[in-house]
Amino acid sequence: MFAGAGAGALFDGGGFMASQAPDPTSSPSKSRGGAQRLIPLTVKQICEAFDSSDDKYNLVVETSNVKLLGLVMNKVERVTDVSFTLDDGTGCIEISRWMSEIWDSNEMALIQNGMYVKVNGHLKGFQGKQCVVAFSVRPVINFNDIALHFLECIHAHMDITREKGGTPAQIHEYPMMTMMTTPFPNVLNPYQVSLQHPGHSVMSGSSNDIYNLVLGVLQEPSSLACEHGLHIDEIVKRVGLPTTKIMEIINYHVDSGHIYSTIDENHFKSAFNG
């Protein structure tokens, strides 16, 4: 997914134009500054970066625009700005958005408590506390973006650490912890495919194979290419097991969030790349 691209290539400029990025040191009435490096981070990564003795990592985070994703809480509207708390499951951070232009007001009018949003902004510190001055706050429409955001956080952390001479252990220790503690339980984590069947503490090796086989059929490129997924009869045909057994396995994977039904209760598609 990210092969062959460094953090600079992926995140420099962050996909927004220079006119969109505000000067973090300016007042709301001043013109917006140039684009800076945009780094996807979790709140915990921000806190640990500023609390750690790794000045190089701290400098990268402090001098960069950041990309966050989380739940909106405690929204407060004022004449000059709108502020709220962003909770991404790893921690909370204060977000403020200046109401400099009409589109700022229009954008923030759509944001309500309880919504998942994507925030682009600049980190600022005040009395030892970090906050983000946002220049973009957008609702999350496709919830695959949540899983994607945490993958981007992992990649950015690995790339920054590698650039700063981190060891493999340092590179992998934090990101894996982040992914294994994904704060949104209803969002599929492709690295956490549980193979524990309901009602059984641990499945046997043969049961594992069967459950993996059915999931593998639904993850084949030809299956993913089908807009409506595969019909249960097609899965039975490919796997060669009784329909009742296939339905048992299908129901397990649906309950686990690995697959989902599409146009009816007989068509299913993998949630990994669907």
UniProtKB/TrEMBL annotation:
Principal subcellular localization: nucleus
Pfam families, per the entry: RPA_C (PF08784)
Domain Replication protein A C-terminal: 157-266
Any one Gene Ontology molecular-function term assigned to this protein's record: single-stranded DNA binding
Family label: Belongs to the replication factor A protein 2 family.
PANTHER family: REPLICATION PROTEIN A-RELATED, REPLICATION PROTEIN A2
Localisation per UniProt entry: Nucleus
Protein's recorded name: Replication protein A 32 kDa subunit B-like
Parts forming coiled coils: none
Function, as annotated: Component of the replication protein A complex (RPA) required for DNA recombination, repair and replication. The activity of RPA is mediated by single-stranded DNA binding and protein interactions.
InterPro entries: NA-bd_OB-fold, RFA2-like, Rfa2/RPA32, RPA_C, WH-like_DNA-bd_sf, WH_DNA-bd_sf
Keyword list, A-Z: DNA damage, DNA recombination, DNA repair, DNA replication, DNA-binding, Nucleus
GO biological process, one term: double-strand break repair via homologous recombination
Domain of life the protein comes from: Eukaryota
CDD domains reported for this sequence: RPA2_DBD_D
Residues passing through the membrane, by range: none
One cellular component (GO) term of this entry: chromosome, telomeric region
